[in-house]
Amino acid sequence: MAKVRVVLVLAVAVFAAVLFISKAVEAGHSPDVVTFNPVTDGGKYNVIHQSKTLPQWGFNVGMTFDYAYEPYEKATAAGTRIIGIVDDLMMTNVHGAIGWTDWWSMGANLPVAIWQTWFDPNLPIATVQKENKYGKLGDARLEMKFRLLDIERHHVGLALVPYMYFPTGHWQTYLGNDMWSPGGTLVFDADIKNRVFLSLNVGYRMYKYVRYDTTNPNAFLDDTLSMGGGINVRINDTWAITGEAWSESVIKSLFKNQLQNPSEFLVGTKITPQGAAKGLGITVGGGRAITTGIGDPDFRVLVGVNYRYDREPPPPPPVEVEAAVEEKIIITQKIHFEFNKAVIRPVSYPILDDVVMLLQQNPQLGLISVEGHTDWIGNDAYNQRLSEKRANSVREYLISKGIEPYRLQAVGYGESRPIADNNTTKGRARNRRTEFTVVQ
């Protein structure tokens, strides 16, 4: 509970600081050339979300540096360049996230323009001079992620990512649009044999309707639809290659108004060392625009570094079988579930995978009873239901790994069969267990 209070206080403090900064911004509206918005939780992609959330009290912190060449320029109706408006944009995004539960995380990102070359488009072309800008803020983003379907259990995942952009950016040089801008992204992804990962993002973002150039009928801000996709191919435990593409378009002129339809793709590599450096991530990538919208660069390069702490216990040792043909298959490790739920924690997958291997190697073991047990905390009826649900979750997992359904039955005994003293913490921990009994 103390940890919860500390994190809540920190979250409120960060939120209040962002509000304070945003209040200090001069009123005005402009398009935003910062279209590279990295994810905050250090996932498998750079800007495309994955459905997996950080585990409870897991966290990620990182920085991503990117350089965009000519993301905004003035051109003729035919697309011929007249003069640059933003010719060079070097950004650093400082981001981080924390898991509140195993299915809910929260993150924040603050973009800062390390270097920007800017030409004032309001001056006569003959008098325009290049100006170098340093250390200007972009629009800060606060986001949450709610996991709706666990990809580690089902090989497909679903998540919802609501977010809010705050008007902290230096809108005068197009590093923000000086408005509060909420939205949300629906994430669908898939895992193909733990080798190829695919993700699709569809989002909606709200803008205050604003015309920022009365001479151009396409120069307006309004609500947008965004789409993006990503692929991550795991070469080995430390190296993966990635590809991503994304686009955003004003809904009123969906994919017709190229000025307000920035689209881009990136390819890159992610390195995640093992051993003592486990948790560290290094990203290198590059890409370019697909369209010529505001924020679309001729090319972009990026380098990122992050540290992601998943707060998972170490994998358990292999299952120790006391006797494969006796009355019980005895395992020495505990099957972990989410608190007060029948959802198996990923740390227990290796244990169950070893049970799968044991059953596959011993076809003479006929019907196996998967038995769930609880301690005596809670009422009898609740514990009975929970033990039944957990036993059924284990049965479903074994079936998903190839064990024939007719070989497995799920039974819950609640608190009725203790093997240790329920008056002690250690005793209650022993009583919360899953057993496998050979019925025939």
Summarize, please.
This protein is of the alpha+beta class and 440 residues long. Helix content is 15%, strand content 40%.
- Distance linking N and C termini: 47 Å
Q: How many beta-strand elements?
A: 20
Could you say which overall geometry the principal axes of the C-alpha atoms support?
elongated
Strand proportion, as a percent range, falls in 35-45%
Strand numbers in spatial order across the main sheet? 1-2-3-6-7-8-9-12-13-14-15-16
What is the succession of H and E elements? HEEEEEEHEEEEEEEEEEEHEHEHE
Radius of gyration: 27 Å
The level of helicity is 10-25%
**Average of per-residue pLDDT values:** 84
What does this structure look like?
The protein is an alpha+beta fold and 440 residues long. The protein has 5 helices and 20 strands. A 12-stranded antiparallel beta barrel has the order 1-2-3-6-7-8-9-12-13-14-15-16. A 4-stranded mixed sheet has the order 17-20-18-19. It has a two-stranded antiparallel sheet with strand order 10-11. The longest helix is centred in the first third of the chain and has 22 residues, at 2-23. The protein starts with a helix and ends with a strand. Mean pLDDT is 84; it is low at 1-27 and 319-325.
